[in-house]
Specification:
single chain; 264 residues; three-stranded antiparallel sheet
């Protein structure tokens, strides 16, 4: 089968600084300042065309970083990623300009994607109707709630009909009715054979919607496989994780990181 996404040994490193002075010294002097933080370490996997891949993991596991790299928003530090098709990331307020109105954001986003004025005039009413923002569409996005931002981002993304849809916790805010409407739209995409990456803390949604699961643990791949098997293992892991003390969790985390370094 044709591959939509091929990820090989992706690593993403950030620098953590104790203050502005340390940040400037790191930029201006040859000496290294700040602490290296690895959001991802040597992550590799394939996504076949038409796959619905769920990303799971506890907070800080690297799911959003990986989503942003696949969407072309954040560059990887090392490794390679091959994307075959147009991607669209749906995340809370992702890519929205706070000082612009909702309508202006729609037009700007479509212009950046290469749509002409005629196409924008055709798509704009559909996007506004799907978002259900009504009179708020002409208000600045900075006045929107997180749920309203998510609605706008979702409405734009699904109506431009991308090849690869990346949904990062976009259904975790807002009302249940809109979340259900959004899931139905995603089901339409699924029936069309679109490739989708789905990030959610709702394991129920994962079981219902996804076909494969990638489990990230502290920036590394813990498991990649069938939905029920990986989620069952993850739920057992969560039960054990909740019982650990803060010190035990930190020791376990450092062991996972150490093992990933030694394996590579």
């Amino acid at each position: 089968m044709q591959k939509s996404i091929v990820v090989r040994n992706i690593t993403k490193k950030y620098k953590l600084y104790s203050g502005t002075k340390e940040r400037f010294l790191d930029l201006l002097t040859p000496k290294s300042f700040g602490e290296d933080f690895y959001a991802l370490r040597n992550v590799s996997f394939d996504v076949e065309k038409g796959d619905i891949l769920g990303l799971i993991g506890t907070n800080g596991s690297g799911k959003s970083t990986l989503s942003s790299i696949m969407a072309g928003i954040v560059p990887e530090t090392s490794g390679t990623i091959e994307i075959n098709g147009q991607t669209s990331l749906i995340a809370i307020s992702s890519g929205l300009k706070n000082d612009l109105t909702g309508r202006d954001n729609i037009e700007l986003k479509l212009l950046m994607l290469g749509f002409d004025k005629y196409e924008i005039d055709e798509l704009e009413p559909e996007i506004i109707e799907f978002s259900e923002l009504d009179k708020f569409i002409d208000q600045p996005v900075k006045s929107y709630s997180s749920g309203m931002k998510s609605r706008l981002g979702f409405a734009i993304s699904v109506n431009i009909d991308p090849d690869i849809l990346i949904i990062d916790e976009a259904l975790s805010v807002g009302d249940r009715a809109f979340a259900e409407k959004s899931l139905n739209k995603m089901m339409e995409f699924k029936e069309k054979g679109k490739t989708m990456i789905f990030v959610s803390h709702s394991l129920g949604q994962m079981r219902k919607f996804c076909e494969k699961i990638l489990w990230l643990e502290f920036g590394t791949v813990r498991e990649h496989g069938s939905v029920n098997e990986v989620i069952d293992n993850y739920e057992n892991y969560l039960n054990d994780w909740k019982k650990m003390s803060k010190r035990e969790k930190e020791a376990y985390k450092q062991q996972v990181i150490a093992n990933s370094i030694s394996e590579n």
